[in-house]
């Protein structure tokens, strides 16, 4: 009597769902833009809104470049290299194009059973060193002393820039979304949009003065956003961010600064001043809402730190008669 043995081959993906080998081919041959849009829809409650926006922006750019959808298995090095060159031709900075490419890679890895990382060989997905973003403490004082007329948007920008600095380098996005309900007694509490890290900021008189200056019936502390709908509010934020950075350029000129002011400057400056004031790195990391102190090091690594020379001199002075 004969016996037949039936084998069933299953492939397990990261979500723990069993797929047969035919499904792998179906996924790989699926249309990327359509599949990616569907994937993002399913992830909207598990990813930060800013991450989803990065994905959407990258997909829009890829669609403009390709002019039509493309199957996942046809996305190769040639396609991605062409997309990268197309982005650069639009005068996008290297870190912006890198962000686009990282977003495409993340979506490919979520969609494809096959590892697509190899097609990114030769594609820049790093973070290039940018221009110095911190200014001196004396420059903060010059900005504070500027005589600006109340009621102007530029005055609001100057006040928010100072508030970001006063609030231990609070990011502009978190200031824009700051609600009055987040102010509790003598402190404000916020969760960073970028990382979700909880940060507690002690309220100083200089901060309370700015908050009081813009008191209104709005749920928001500052008159930057109107909508309470997360998606609509985020679009408002993006527009205000552009206006904020443009106005900061004008403020820098009025203050006689040679360095370009951006939405990051107040944050980097606070970190630099704190470090120069002998505040320990773990404390600075906690204030900035960094989960990893290595991130904080990127803020302060370019500081001209005379303490290194002083430490070296102190150590060697003890034995210089012996070895020098």
TrEMBL record:
Residues 130-313 form the Tyr recombinase domain. Residues 31-112 form the Core-binding (CB) domain. Keywords: DNA integration, DNA recombination, DNA-binding. Transmembrane segments: none annotated. GO terms for biological process: DNA integration; DNA recombination. GO terms for molecular function: DNA binding. It comes from the Bacteria. Belongs to the 'phage' integrase family. This is Site-specific integrase. It comes from Xylanibacter ruminicola (Prevotella ruminicola).
């Amino acid at each position: 009597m004969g016996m037949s043995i039936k084998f069933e081959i299953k492939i397990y993906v990261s979500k723990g769902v069993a797929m047969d080998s035919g499904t792998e081919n179906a996924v790989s041959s699926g249309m990327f833009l359509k599949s990616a849009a569907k994937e993002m829809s399913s992830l909207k409650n598990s990813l930060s809104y800013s991450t989803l926006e990065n994905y959407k922006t990258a997909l829009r750019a890829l669609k403009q470049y390709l002019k039509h959808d493309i199957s996942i298995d046809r996305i190769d090095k040639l396609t991605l290299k062409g997309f990268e060159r197309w982005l650069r031709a639009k005068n996008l900075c290297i870190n912006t194009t890198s962000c686009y490419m990282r977003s495409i890679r993340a979506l490919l890895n979520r969609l494809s059973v096959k590892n697509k990382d190899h097609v990114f060989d030769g594609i820049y997905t790093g973070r290039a060193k940018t221009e110095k973003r911190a200014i001196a403490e004396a420059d903060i004082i010059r900005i504070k002393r500027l005589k600006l007329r109340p009621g102007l948007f530029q005055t609001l920008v100057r006040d928010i820039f100072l508030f970001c600095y006063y609030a231990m380098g609070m990011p502009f996005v978190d200031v824009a979304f700051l609600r009055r309900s987040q102010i509790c007694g003598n402190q404000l509490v916020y969760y960073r949009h970028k990382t979700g890290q909880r940060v507690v900021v002690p309220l100083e008189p200089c901060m309370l003065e700015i908050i009081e200056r813009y008191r209104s019936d709005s749920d928001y502390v500052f008159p930057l956003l109107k909508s309470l709908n997360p998606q609509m509010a985020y679009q408002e934020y993006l527009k205000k961010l552009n206006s904020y950075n443009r106005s900061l350029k004008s403020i820098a000129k009025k203050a006689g600064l040679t360095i370009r002011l951006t939405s990051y400057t107040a944050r980097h400056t606070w970190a630099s001043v704190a470090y120069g004031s002998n505040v320990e790195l773990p404390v600075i990391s906690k204030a900035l809402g960094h989960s990893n102190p290595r991130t904080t090091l990127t803020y302060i690594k370019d500081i001209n730190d005379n303490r290194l020379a002083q430490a070296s001199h102190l150590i060697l002075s003890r034995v210089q008669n012996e070895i020098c």
